[in-house]
Protein 1
Amino acid sequence: MAFLNALPGAVAEGLIWGLMAIGVYISYKILDIADLTVDGSICTGGCVCAVLISNGVPVWLSIVIAFFAGMLTGVVTGLLHTALGIPSILAGILTQLMLYSVNLSILGGKSLIAINPRENNLLMHMSDNPSAIVAGVIVVTATIILLWLFFYTEVGLTLKSTGDNPDMSCAQGVNVNFNKVLGLAISNGIVALAGAMLAQYKGSANINDGRGAIVIGLAAIFIGLSVSMKIKPNFVVSLIGVIGGGIVYYIIYNFVVLLGLKTDYLKMLSAIIVALFLAVPYLKGKYFTKQKPIAVTENAGGGKNA
């Protein structure tokens, strides 16, 4: 019964983290870049949104500004990587470290800032999970549609080709470095958007909100793609699968919490889930997939052909 009561909250929060996982999907799957900026940019989105709302800025405008603040963090990572030649994973770590100080400054030196849902017409809040689910579905649907429209434009297709084969794209006259910066900006903008939604849902923004976000995003991606790729392997279905992965992850998360697992071990649980989904395909291919032996026949010259 307790699990059923917690289910709406798990779905609402799963939608938010699924949205964040879409941002991770763009950098990790489309650009083929393991971007660790997201641990900082999701917090940036939440901090910007919370501070603006608490200072009387309309909710919709606060969300838009949070999105562009997230895009800016992606641009910083992209420039560190493309303009300064820093490896992408290290560039993300450096930006993430810088963002801790930036986010603390946004919060005015405080570790937390609260948003009063009674004084502000928030898009979603944990006090009303059914409405939060509806709002989450609307935001997620709009995001998927906009991404679908964008990635089938000329710019979007060249961005995909940059991730698939950057050398070939460069040979065809594509500005690979620009595409990497653009892709990371879009990715972190969506992550910051999820952070803005999370801050409203929780009613606060915390300087530590982003810790482990990349692990949750990867867990949602691997859970979602393990199902969606078997249904229909295309872009939109993959994004829907990622959202579903976020929801499934948080349902499992809440179930484990209700079983009595100490919160100290929840980050370890997230890492184990990701490790399992990464390891299973490898172990399956190594130990359970039988390869047919190659037939060898003799040719007319006395040699052997495979």
Protein 2
Amino acid sequence: MARMQRREFLNLSALAAGGTLLASRLAFGRSDTRKPRFVLIIMRGALDGLATVAPYGDRDYAALRGDLALRAPGERNGALPLEGFFGLHPALAFLQQCYAARELTVFHALASPYRERSHFDGQDVLENGSARAHALTTGWLNRALERAPAPGQREAGVALGQNMPLVMRGPAAVTSWSASKLTALDEDTLGRLTDLYANDALLATRLADALAADAIAGDGAGSGAGMMPDAPDKNGQAPRARYAQVVRAAAGFLRQESGPKVAVFDTTGWDTHANEGGAQGQLAARLASLDAALATLKQELGATWGDTAVLMVTEFGRTAAINGTRGTDHGTATAAFLVGGAVAGGRVIADWPGLSARALYEGRDLAPTLDLRSVLKGLLHEHLSVPSRELERTVFPDSAAAQPLRGLVRT
């Protein structure tokens, strides 16, 4: 166990700022034909990182999780193999394929600066980019887009959902799209609306933009399937059709030569206080739906997948031990995922703190050892070319202690 912790620590340290070998390899050595695309998926509700990326090699893990614990790969209820200590939940078959293809990096024992356990405040910190809830009214991704080069792009990013999330609010020009729940308009009605708005520049522009966005997203303006899973079906599963619709829309925008280079959307249902399940059950069903959506995203992006990085994050983790209702309560550190053709993957990055009673944060949670902002800084600089000085000064203010990770994307 001690050797594993040390090895993982060295893995992390080699990627941190100051890793001269990796830094020298990254120094502006990319091709001019590179067209980076970035997808941010916010997993609202606090993902159970210990169930999603199981540390089956930790001697204390099985006792904390009981019969919900995932076993070693190859065993009954076993995890999918990663690197010999951690394993993926068996519902994440596509992500495991990406790991084998070196297109997935897993981060563990990771957290934002937030140390309380309120969903509302935790999500605010996750999105505003500061160390405190409600300290900023704009989002880190919007501020990053304002400072990233965006030649020929009218809008730098698109938010897929009924509301613009905080992470995308700010000075940079961004757009939004949401699946219509109305029946499709016929050509005659569209013609009448066009004529009606013809003498109003603002309304005419808005109508044209809306029609263009629907055409790009492939929605047809009448699919009516809704957005990401809002309520589970009778079996507790997030319907895959909703996931498929939004990732197809995201791919439609990102494939455009001069369209948005960033897409953001939410997933919900990760607040598993009761009947979470182990290899099967409520959490497994939601993970399987998300995994299938990621496979669809890769398929829909086609060649653009090679320039794409997808980051999946949540506001905080869950308790190390199972509670009395066979679920988990709000915790602290968790796991995150970076997947895509642009990712330098095939790794688990974690300075693993252990799960002994003495190692747990406040005696109950996985202790945080990796700052989410370190991941975000490294990714935004390497993948979207956001200047380092702007990351420190504007995008993530007061974050000097969170040194950026290097080598997260392919050179």
Protein 3
Amino acid sequence: MNDNIKEQSFPVFLIGHELKYETECILKAFIPAVRFKFYYDDLSLFHDSCRYAAVQLRQGREYTYFYCAVSLGEKRLRIMKRTERLYPDRDKKQCESVISKLLFSILHEHTGIDVPWGILTGIRPVKKILSLLENNMRRDEIFSVLKKEYWISEEKLQLAYDTALIQRPLLAETPNRSIGLYVSIPFCPSRCSYCSFVSHSVEQAKKLMPEYIILLCKELEIWGDIVRRLGLIVDTVYFGGGTPTSVSAEHLEKLLKAVNENFDLSHLREYCVEAGRPDTITEEKLIVLKENGVTRISINPQTMNNDVLANIGRRHTAEDIIAAYKMARKIGFDNINMDLIAGLPGDTPVSFRNTLKQIIKLVPDSVTVHTLTLKRAANLFSNGAAQLENPVREMVRDSINMLPENGYKPYYMYRQKNTLDNQENVGYAKPGKESFYNMLIMDETQSIFGAGCAASTKLVEPNGMITRICNYKFPYEYIAQFEQLMEKKKHIYDVYGRIAEEERANAEK
């Protein structure tokens, strides 16, 4: 192999186009835990590689020709398709569809791998079903359209369809001119091996925490002023991280009071705090949450297998999870979510099934089942190849069957790149216990105001346009450049000025 191509990378040649995103997503579905190196209109390294993928678009006098070639070492496969005239800039979606299907076909033949989501690469499959439901399409019509366009399996279509049916009436209840408030606490007791979030251990970040809390309260005060000036309604509040309960009860109470003092919460439908890891949960913190209006908490086991907990760097046991859960119930929380991850190192279908049985026995109000995702920023990524034989599909299928059998219905879903076996993340809930924040952030029809390190503000206009304003990624940046960061918030008034103009124009029609 040519020295210019690193041994651990997989070269991908794009000739006559720059449609990198869809190409990479399809490749990842069949060739996971690999770093792809893209070359544009450059075939100089092509013949030096025993592993490569090449996707070419060539214009003829009357037609457009698409070529795909893939080599995985032992054999090389090629495929071609001729279409009517298509141009990558003008006809991007059509070109992406042709390329995706050609690449999917050749990789399926090469590997024999069954990819249940077909060529669908978006992270929000439920939105596609919701839009078809809005057009009054029947179930069989929706399945026919999506199977033809994306080659999605019947099982995944049914899961997405069931999720859409739960979401649709709940999303319709969203108040006009409402927003969700996200508060970021990027600290954890330790970093789990699968985690790629910007989270700092309490031990490392203790010296930053007091100033971070002070500035976060100041940012909440600024947000409160913006919400009042714009006449907006706070619909949901969500504390995430990190692990919000990794801070002291005193700091936690200070933040909760900052929310209560700076925002009108009389219209609030949900106030959620990720209590997260049981080794951060104390009776004092739970009482602080309860007394300050929190209505929903998330206690996240990830697994009830003690060996697997040790494998991922957790400092607690399954017994600690049960104790924390029972403590929260005793204090009066009647809306508790529990997160699980399918495919963790050392887990098996049998042990994951046992985790599901133990969680179901506890009777939480909702259960979110994530599939392990091998992210580059996570420590686990460096050993990602070792996870590829993990029978995660059987684990996911057990959750799809067992949770509805016990009264939990799928209510929100999203997908990620680098997820094992191209699976998905699904939230299941008892009726009336669905998380509005989770649904709305996936549906992208409500603005989210983000406060704190690495928080992202997402401003949604009536025409569907989305403007994002991102806070600095690391706590020390957030602290050092706080004033400059707050200056960025002035852009919000420009966006809401456009929204007001559009609302006036619609009213006059």
Protein 4
Amino acid sequence: MARIRRALVTGGAGFIGSHLVRRLLNDGWQVYVVDNLSTGHLDNVPAGAEFQKLDLSSPSSTRYLPVGVDVVFHLAAQSSGEVSFARPDADLQANSRATLLLLDWCRTRGITRFLFASSMAVYGDTRQLPVREDMCPAPKSFYGIHKLASEHYLRVFQKLGLCTTALRLFNVYGPGQNLANLKQGMVSIYLSYVVRSEPVLVRGSAARFRDFVFVDDVVEAFIACLDRPSTCGGIYNVGSGTKTTVGELLTLILQACGRVPDGYPVIFAGGTPGDQHGIYADCTAICRDTGWRARTDLRTGLRRMAVWALGRPDHAGLFKGEK
């Protein structure tokens, strides 16, 4: 009888992490979740996972981590570029320092597989599009700097015997995203206004563009990389590969919610610090090495997200931090 595999998922009480935990449990894994609940919620942790509240930026936290872990999925982070400008030192602690401490814990415990959620923010603004992993990164936010620093930590620990993989996630969206957080997640921010029948506040130009990737596809990217030796030491873009402007996104969100786009009130204001004007991914590398590609088109994904948000008995609860 095969031994049950054990995974540690940091940030497993958050949006993407909870989806990944659910997938691993369905695949028969034993899953340990670590989260400091600063943005995640305990209700997000799927039944069957073991939960521990920990601040991974504290050196003492590693003594409370579980033993016998086979794989670490490191998704815990402060994930807002805007927030990183308000508290750059806190962002450094939550992102770079926590990653370094966790990598060193893996090395001392003999855990050899480490998958890391990096970000498109490492690229900054670039004229060459779509972006490829071999391009020179130039992050515009403290968040992007700290994600890039964490990638370099992974490279060093790869040489020390860990099999590490970094996934540069683009704009992830889907059911379960925190509509109460108006500082992170372009889709969830705009959708939150529409669900409340309020004017949509857009920080920046409608001509900005992004690459939106559905959360289920992101989970599949982690799973696709997990057991493939070719991904050890790799850094991969995880996006749809499709350029979508803010104006196009607003139209699709309104249509998904059954609203008429023409005439719906939209207020444009100044941009946020460190915001990238436009970016979308070249996902050739991950497709070549794993066969992964995004399978959910934006219109379908937004429709599924809108059904989730509007179908709650009291969807107003979404704006009180409930997910």
